Amino acid sequence: MKRTISIVCSLIFTSFLDMNYITYAKETDLSSIASSLGADTDYLDIPNYKHSSELPFPKSVYKDFFSKCTNYEASSQSEEVFCLELASGTCYGISAIEVLSHNGIISPSDIMLNAQTLSEIQLSQEADHFISGYHASQLHYENDYYNRYLVTQLNHQSQCNELIRIAEKNMADGKYFIITYYGDTAHAVCGIGITDGNWNYNGVDFDRCILTLDSNAFDDDTNKGPFSERSCIYVNSQTCDYYIPKYNFGSIPTAQQVQILANDNINIINYKGVFEPTKELDFDFTDTARIFFTQSRFKKYDAIVKDKNGMYTDVIKEGRKYEFGNDVGYYIIGNEFHIETDNKLLLGESQNDKFNIMNQRYYFEGETENNHGIFDISDTEFSVATKNDKALVYDMKIKYNEGYYSCSPHFNWTFNGETDHNFKSILVDKGMILQSDGTIKTSISTSDVLLDGQDNITDININPNETTITAVNDVFVTFNENNKLCFFIDPDDDGVFDKIIEKGDVNSDGVIDGRDATSVLSAYAVASVNKNIVSYLNKDSADYNRDGIIDGRDATEILTLYAYNSTNKQEVGT
Ligand SMILES: [Ca+2]
Ligand SMILES: [Ca+2]
Ligand SMILES: [Ca+2]
Question: At residue 465, does pLDDT exceed 60?
Answer without folding.
Answer: yes
